[in-house]
Design brief:
Blueprint (H helix, E strand, L loop, with lengths): L2 H6 L11 H17 L5 H32 L3 H35 L2 E3 L7 H15 L6 E2 L15 E6 L11 E5 L7 E3 L10 E5 H7 L10 E11 L13 H12 L4 E7 L4 H10 L7 E4 L9 H6 L23 H7 L2 E5 L5 H12 L3 E8 L7 H11 L3 E6 L7 H14 L2 E3 L6 E2 L3 E8 L2 E9 L11 E8 L2 H16 L10 E3 L3 H17 L5 E6 L5 H12 L3 E6 L16 E6 L4 E2 L2 E5 L6 E5 L5 H5 L1 E7 L3 H17 L4 E4 L5 E3 L11 H8 L9
Parallel strand pairs: 1-6, 8-9, 11-12, 12-13, 14-25, 17-22, 19-20, 20-21
Antiparallel strand pairs: 2-4, 3-4, 3-7, 5-6, 7-8, 10-17, 11-15, 15-16, 16-17, 18-25, 19-23, 21-26, 23-24, 24-25, 26-27
Helix pairs in contact: 2-3, 2-4, 3-4, 11-12, 12-13, 15-16, 18-19
Length: about 700
Amino acid sequence: MTTKNALHAESPKAAVFLDREMSQLQFNRRVLAQAEDKRLPLLERLRYLCIVSNNLDEFFEVRVASLLAQGALHDDPALDATLGRISRECHALVKQQYDILNTEVLPQLRAKGVHLVRHTDRNEAQRAWVKQYFEQQVRPLLTPIGLDPAHPFPQVVNKSLNFIVSLSGKDAFGRGTAIAIVKAPRVLPRVIRLPDHLAKGGGAAFCLLSSVIHSHIEDMFTGRDVIAYSQFRVTRDSDLWVDEDEVKNLRQALKGELQGRQFGTSVRLEVAKNCPPELSDFLLAQFCLDPSRLYAVDGPVNLVRLAELIDEVRQPGLRFEPFIAGMPAKTANLSIFDQIRKHDILLHHPFQSFQTVIDFICVAASDPHVVAIKQTIYRTGMNSELMEALMAAARSGKEVTVIVELMARFDEEANINWADKLEQAGAQVVYGVVGLKTHAKAALVIRREPDGLQYYAHLGTGNYHLTTTRLYTDFGLLTANPAMGEDVNEVFIHLTSLTKPHKLNHLWLAPFALQAEIIKAIRNEARLAKSGRPGRIIVKINALVDESVIRALYAASADGVKIDLIVRGACILRPGVPGLSENIKVRSVIGRFLEHSRIYYFRNDLAHDVYLASADWMTRNLFRRVEVAFPVLDKALKRRVIAEGLNPYLKDNSNAWELDANGHYHRRKARGKQAEFSAQRHLMELLGLKDGSNA
């Protein structure tokens, strides 16, 4: 059967596309493999375990919550089957995660002098210190709640640490209240460092807040016997919803919704492995969950909080070697604007410092010749030098326009706070387009110069967030190209005025043209291949789930186009299927840094078109977000993107995983006399950075 026939035949959809949710969970398996990797420092292995927990939290809060909401509306056997597969895979994933923690990471940390001590492991001196800590720091903040008609089951905050306690006998009023709930104070650290003199052999000793409360839980119920108890944690639906057609002020509406996020519909319950069935059943009933949503874990239920331990340990050799990011070459005595006018500047983060972008905005804010600054903000964090610079520019009288995306998931509160501050400083704040998230990463500086107004633009694949720029791989471009500047200004006018943008010179803008331009470029490679010339596509993105783009890739494969896809996370394309995708290879690279850059390469008959973008190839990015893909026009910089952002990842045989047609990933390994090659380590060496790890 030909590809076209295969795509239009009445075959099951699963024969053409992989399951999205299972693909996302496969990504977490690859992250978990990093925690198993003995080549990596121990604390970094622990960090990967915490990352998996954080990823699973969001997976339940968003994806599983969405599927359960669909199931609540109508019966769907296919949906039930999907939820069943998710449950089985998540239970297996969590079991493996705690096995690695308990049998590998924690024992090996103990051997290195880092002790996470449970109550049964503590010596008398340690127990005395923990008891004092409990009495002075913890107990005053605890409010045990005995359940009775006057004290119903309390509201439990999303992902908070709590305890359920089964009691014998009668309470102080002669009533048989058998169940009590204790909430762990959210103001206390979850990982507590014991004084150094209590650690063995000059190492470091820690205990968990959950362990401290466990050890003294009986002290809170004078005159009652504690029969059984367990820590527990509930995960809730955390997607915010506002009727954007009805609300008059999106910012005010979101402020109200943020409070409700903590108490959304329950989707998962975690308890300790030794939790008695009667207690877990009681909790399941309270949270209206069926038994498949129960996760009994062999360790702390809030595993993501172990990240606090990583930051406290000072022993050498347990983390990746620190490095200092490089800076682009500068021409002496030239201002940042003169340098950009001389030639475009390409930045490859985190190997090259994000400080160049910060300097660009800060200099613009203080430059008397700059008349306007425009910028999009999707994620920027609670502290931001960029935001401070924009506020300073507004106070000095410059025209400052900031497109703040209030619906950036889990960053809504920070963005609302920045929006308030920016408006108070005199900036024009716009919340993008109703119904579409503004995900584009763009900044524009307009400067009055002798020959008229000059545009200086920054376009990037990542957020204006200082922390993530040190951890994520991304590209950024600083350019004074007039046509590019006009395009960027047109995008800002579109976002503030809500008018349809004029035809752009270079940028591909979603939701208007990005998907169509991508498919057009794919089909052009297919046309060239059919005419006997080489067709070649290389794409690096975070997710590939848009069916229209995948079908175009399948068709191009059938026409002979050689396609390499570097997809970090979810990918529903089936590679290597005869008659469908035999010319397509898919790989994922998981290393020290989170692969975040989006690169689209089309050979285009030796034109070598290179686009950098804010958008993954997902339906939401192509049709429900404002996204920008921008070309790298300078030939030398094109070569750099290919040499740094694509080719090393195709050679990686250390941290790369290849996807097969059945949806399984297989780790690439050096074969025979082949040397081990890590793309990220190569880039650190290429750009002259110190690195002592196997990143």
